[in-house]
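Recap from last week: sequence in, structure out.
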Amino acid sequence: MAITARLYGQVFLKAFNKEIDILDDAIACTLHTSGYTPDQDTHIYVSSLNSEVAAGGGYTTGGQNLANDTLTYTAGTNTIMYDADDVVWSGSITARTAVLSDRTPGTAATQPLLVYQQSDVDIVSNNGEYRVAWAAAGVFTIAVG
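Predicted structure tokens:
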């Protein structure tokens, strides 16, 4: 099983336009079935998403907000890291893609997409737990040097 994590192409434009306040806004993680294929160039807002996991089996439509998110700068490596607690659901869930989006703006057509993490195969709950685990380098890390 291989997992790919990517930023959506316009995430920095949306941040610099003040559409995203990554630490103060509600950043949600939603799960999607194999029916969703991320497109970094054309998927900009939540309204671009499809094939969200159906409510039930421990999952609630709209996903779950991140907890304990942080943004740090490391001078020695000139990197900025965004990190948060892993996201965990209890119950029977099958999904292939986890998507982070800013749910604070008013509607799905104005809620920016940030990042997705996609497996090449379906991932099924393990012992009643479905976990989206972030890399040791955080949800994402950006080199600014």
